[in-house]
Specification:
heterodimer, A: 294 residues, mainly alpha, MetI-like fold, two-stranded antiparallel ribbon, B: 440 residues, alpha/beta, D-Maltodextrin-Binding Protein, domain 2, six-stranded mixed β-sheet, four-stranded mixed β-sheet, 48% helix, 11% strand
């Protein structure tokens, strides 16, 4: 085995095809996209070199701050929701639902496999205000509250997006974190229980530290997934009302494909990439110290 | 050198890999099935329709079985569909790949169709129709409207010739003792009276891109107050949307929204729902183009009956320089033809000529659709359609809609913000600032 892995030609043969495919489908388009940031125009009008004009435009774009703020707000809220609810569900599976766990896990996981557009339409109907009153507003009216125009104002539309996306993905994070919890040795837990540790003490001092690697992975998955969210928001609100729920991804999509400004679209994409890298680096840096600090 | 020698030793494998890559790239490049003609005739006559318009596909299908049966034999009609909201981006992608179908719904933003023409993707139909000796088949009113939109060129076929205005429910007005308003002030007073009586005054959509239903009110108010060339002045740089006089127009509509005249939540209402609300008697007024005649004349869709619908030209605004005779006109959902597909493909040319010659009669007979094509007078039309035909023939001065001169980005932003304006959430000033920021 050592002779194979020590031979450069073997390494090239084993890694070469995968590296080639990866370079063609990932690296090349990324570099291509990076190149577009220095050009203006579209496939119809043709491209011309624009120097740093797209970056100047980025800093003066009145629509960018709201889009960037929505992206960050959405990523923070959904990540917290997904991972927190997912972790709570995972604890529930392990400690309280040992026998019925598989049924509950299946039910909670079910929304993960539903098509995003279908979920978006479902929630549109759930929270409908006009012309028909959806089930949520009917329930509010039954309890004596006024019906709410959920998609008419930015804050309420954001709330519905958050509820939908957390509901849609919490099952995935529950399963991911559940597998992490299963790795915690039973004898450690039993020893702590014999020593009289309360449930809260068990969670704080044993379960969380021992499941931290999978928690960190979940956070990185979630934050990167939510920073790049597109389909669920597009299906539910289309970025509205106005542009109040337009994340960077949707703004980039509109700029490139609807407005035909590929150069500026690529610049927005670059902004998103940098944001993802910064957040991921921050999470790794913050959590790398945690185990050492105990 | 050793590495180069090693590559040379593997030349057959290297050549095969390069060959395979070239094959993949060439297959990908030819991947579009849009009917582009690269020598010889295309297999089908492909038409890219939009989901929201059923009249054009229906008329073309009827033509393929009747007047254009021969053309359909050599090039069978294939209809593909696309959501109107994503039509512009689809056209850009297809044009970028050189894969535009032979015929397609023209872009939502006229500026994009113009751009497609500039890069050689769209056919100058004015010249094509003239070369075929069929220019008599395009009504002068339609021709001049198209030319106003496309810098003096006829880039689309006028599958619609519309006037726009305010349609009203005669019975609801009568029941509430309201005379047909002729001024803005009378109209607003009518809204207040209807609202007090528990009737929704206006039904217009504001959901996503359907917000044009609200922004049309803005454009018309401005044109009535500032004169017919008010929006052209903005396009020419002689005025700004953020100027007080223009923001006042948007504010007038925002005020209607604040009072709830557009209904509970215009941001939740799409085009079909807005039309249905009016057609089933749940609202008294709707701003709409004459393209809605096919729906109004359909008793299944319009339960209040076509005879109960009246048409009102957008009223005058006191002190304004615009008059009610300056009617908003357009060619609505029009058809563009791919230059690449048309040039040198006699079968496609025959199809286009057949459409120009026969579309008008079939659309009018089967869908009550007034088009910009000549008809032979053999079709008997419902009274409401006849009334609109007369209105169209009497047009002396036409104006374009609010976003007509805007680029695609400003058009989208304006129409996406229409719902918030119609609910009174956006002030006129803020709306105009938002749109204005995207004009360049």
């Amino acid at each position: 085995m050592h002779s194979v892995l020590g031979d450069r030609r073997s390494i090239a043969i084993l890694l070469g095809p995968a590296l080639l495919v990866y370079s063609l489908v990932m690296l090349l388009p990324m570099l291509w996209s990076l190149g577009y940031t220095f050009f203006t125009g579209s496939v119809i009008s043709g491209f011309s070199y624009a120097g740093t004009a797209n970056f100047e435009k980025l800093f003066n774009d009145p629509a960018l701050p709201s889009s960037l703020w929505f992206t960050v707000k959405y990523a923070a809220a959904i990540t917290l929701g997904q991972v927190f609810v997912g972790y709570a569900l995972a604890l529930l599976y392990v400690f309280f639902l040992r026998k019925a766990g598989s049924v509950v896990r299946t039910l909670v996981f079910f929304p993960v496999v539903l098509p995003t557009v279908a979920v978006g339409l479902l929630f549109q109907k759930f929270f409908e205000f006009a012309p028909q009153t959806g089930p949520v507003n009917s329930m509010l009216e039954t309890f004596g509250f006024e019906a709410v125009d959920w998609f008419g104002t930015p804050g309420k539309a954001f709330f519905v997006i958050a509820v939908m996306d957390i509901w849609r993905s919490m099952g995935f994070y529950a399963i991911l974190l559940y597998t992490g919890l299963l790795d915690i040795p039973d004898d450690v837990m039993e020893a702590a229980a014999i020593d009289g540790a309360s449930t809260w003490r068990l969670i704080r001092s044993i379960i969380v530290p021992l499941s931290l690697p999978v928690l960190v992975s979940s956070l990185v998955f979630s934050i990167n997934g939510t920073l790049k969210a597109f389909d669920s928001i597009y299906a539910l609100t289309g970025g509205g009302p106005g542009n109040a729920t337009t994340p960077l991804t949707l703004y980039m999509y509109q700029t490139s494909f609807a407005y035909g400004d590929y150069g500026y679209g690529a610049t927005i994409a670059l902004t998103l990439t940098v944001l993802c890298l910064l957040v991921t680096a921050f999470i790794f840096r913050a959590t790398r110290r945690a185990p050492e600090q105990g | 050198m050793a590495r180069a020698f090693r590559w040379a030793g593997h030349r057959p494998a290297y050549t095969a890999a390069v060959g395979a890559a070239a094959l993949v790239l060439s297959v990908a490049a030819c991947g579009g099935d849009g009917g582009g003609n690269s020598g010889g005739s295309a297999k089908n006559f492909t038409f890219l329709a939009i989901n929201e318009n059923t009249t054009i596909p229906t008329t073309l299908t009827t033509l393929s079985k009747s007047a254009c049966a021969d053309e359909n034999k050599t090039q069978p009609l294939v209809i593909k569909k696309q959501a109107q909201g994503s039509l512009d981006q689809q056209l850009q992608l297809l044009a970028g790949q050189g894969a535009l179908p032979q015929a397609f719904i023209a872009a939502n933003a006229p500026a994009l169709t113009q751009q497609l023409f500039d890069n050689g993707s769209v056919l100058d139909l004015g010249n094509a129709v003239k070369s075929a000796g069929l220019e008599e088949n395009i009504l002068p009113a339609a021709g001049s409207t198209i030319e106003a939109l496309y810098d003096g060129k006829q880039l689309v076929l006028p599958s619609e010739l519309n006037i726009e205005g305010i349609w009203y429910n005669k019975k609801l007005l009568q029941d509430n003792g309201i005379a047909v308003p002729t001024t803005w002030e009378q109209l607003v007073a009518a809204f207040a009276k209807l609202q007090a009586a528990g009737v929704q005054p206006i039904s217009n959509a504001g959901k996503g891109g359907d917000g044009w239903g609200v922004t049309r009110w803005v454009g018309n108010y401005i044109v009535r107050e500032q004169g017919p060339d008010a929006l052209k002045k903005v396009a020419d740089g002689d005025a700004k949307l953020t100027d007080a006089a223009y923001a006042k127009g948007a504010q007038a509509i925002s005020d209607l929204g604040k009072k709830g005249y557009f209904g509970k939540s215009p941001t939740s209402i799409d085009y079909a729902t807005a039309l249905n609300t009016f057609a089933t008697g749940k609202a008294a007024f709707i701003y709409m183009g004459s393209w809605a005649l096919s729906a109004f004349n359909d008793p299944k869709q319009t339960t209040i009956g076509a005879e109960n619908i009246g048409f009102l030209k957008f009223p005058t605004v006191s002190g304004g320089t615009g008059t009610a005779d300056q009617v908003s006109a357009n060619v609505g959902t029009a058809i563009a033809i791919s230059k690449k597909a048309y040039d040198g493909d006699k079968n496609t040319q025959a199809w286009v000529e057949c459409i120009v010659e026969n579309y008008g009669n079939v659309a009018l007979r089967d869908s009550s659709q007034i088009t910009g094509f000549k008809t032979d007078g053999s079709v008997e039309v419902p009274a409401l359609t006849k009334q609109i035909q007369d209105e169209i023939s009497n047009i002396q001065d036409s104006v374009l809609w609010f976003e007509a001169y805007f680029p695609a980005k400003a058009t989208t932003v304006s129409q996406n913000s229409g719902g918030q304006l119609g609910s009174g959430q956006l002030s006129g000033e803020k709306f105009m600032q938002t749109v204005s920021a995207n004009l360049s």
